Fold these 2 entries.
Entry 1:
Amino acid sequence: MATEVTRELLHRLPKAELHVHLDGSLRPETMLELAAEYGKKMPAHDAETLRDYMHVQDARNLVEYLERFSITLSVMQTADALERIAYELAEDLARENVRYAEIRYSPILNAQEGLPLTETVDAPLRGLARAEKDFGIKTAIIICGIRNMEPATSRDLADLTVAYKDRGVVAFDLAGAEYNYPAKKHKDAFYTVINKNMAATIHAGEAYGAESIHQALHYCRANRIGHGTRLYEDPDLMRFMNDFRVPIEICLTSNVQTRAVESFDKHPVRMYYDEGLVLSLNTDNRLMSATTVTEEYWRAHQHLGFTWDELVDLALMSFDSAFMHRTEKLALLDAVRREIESLTSATA
């Protein structure tokens, strides 16, 4: 008999989160406390009103979706704030049984008031290390270049990524406004990272078409694709990604918010799964998208008909797509499989 999918069951499912932005996942309560401490203005004076304001419900495109990040970044300019925010994000993830998370952000955006770039990385790493000790969640950092910044800035951030290899940073990314800012202009930064045997993932195929994914793969040698929403526009490229098992970091809710898709029901993830592509479900931004990893799995079930067995498959693919050393990944996967078997048996 098929297992009935409930929110509670999905909450208990061990999950991985591979695409979550640090500056898009703050607690509103923390934002208000930090704003008071640092003399920053917030658009609301209580947590619930601020939470509602930060939830993007009126964006017409990706650029408008990104506008609210200036608010969170205003209170992310000190080491103490970064350490706290990273710790709290890991705690929030652990509370919904996320066992592994790769948290991404662009340190250059946290150095606007003079914080050294090294400290913009060291501080979140301290917070994540404390969270792993307190909650048992394994975490890593992905450093992002920004598409609409100069390629030289991306190269600096790539150098920063390499400097933290095997010290908590596992990959380099390219984020930000996609339309009119091609990834190939930043290919030298990706060469820097890949040449040091590190991984790369790139936001692509969200606000621009399959050509953006093509550049991410063939100019920048991305190991994973963030969003990949419009991959279906190029069936040949989709076959390439399937053949070479390139994972796609799916973010259902934010894709609806940014108008990358018309609705949850019309998201191509159902087709991608049926075609056999490697996929993971992710939040993108817990605050701006008012979501959790559990909620993303629930929406895949409610709107796209994913069964329990299929959602388990997605969870396992997420862990297998992690930028972890293979031996560590296999040990984690083994533990997760045993837990899922026990969970499934208990609900049978």
Note: The first helix runs from residue 7 to 12.
Entry 2:
Amino acid sequence: MFGFSVYQLLWYFFIYAVLGWCVEVIFCTATTGQWVNRGFLNGPLCPIYGFGMVIVLLCLTPLQGSLPLLFLGSFLLTSALELVTGFVLKKAFHTTWWDYSDQPFNLGGYVCLGFSLAWGLGGMAAVRLLHPPVEKFVAFLPRPVGWTLLGAFGLAFLIDLAATLTTLIGLERDLRELERIAAALRRGSDAISRNLSDAALAADEKLEEGRDALPAKLAELEVRRDFLRAKLVDSRLFGAGRLMRAFPAMQNLKHSDALAELKAEFKARLPR
């Protein structure tokens, strides 16, 4: 396949996905002062880096003798991958995971010139400097051992992906319920604040029964709301809490208010 075997490409994907995760963690730690598991998945793997380097190697290996062409190709390919990935994730999960809208020369908030230039330089350096020892390492591994490790890595990747997708489906469901509870609490508070007259209550016994039951119902809703928030916020190593910490700029297009409140509570609970 363009000079590479499937075996090689699989190894390159996993190696660069792990190295990309390391880069993300180091960058985030240096800029925020806190260690954060920066990745869409729970494990130490950023698939976008793996896919990005595989695409770069497939398309640009013939151009590696020319630094300008290698830089330009890396710049364009990695920017296109980041753009497509952000768009697909937004459509699939109704969520934006990163946002470059505050950066100059950005495109829809998905990509920006500054990071695209960095990806171009990184791709160029990876092909010329990093990939030769990686290629030698993959060639050094005995094939039976290599395939066994690839099988284990692939299984772990699929399990992690399934767990992450389950988390996202659960987060969408919980955000929807939090918004439903918030709307019910607003309606209940409005009903109490109207302070219905005694005459009106006397004219309708059912109304009075409903009014007596309303505070208890609101209390039940508040307990359910607090339980959902605690469940989501306290999952810092895995689950929704980890995603909110890994992607502080994430926004849900369908339940923006509920997610904003959840993120504010999550941020308030983080250690100073």
Note: Residues 163-269 form one domain.
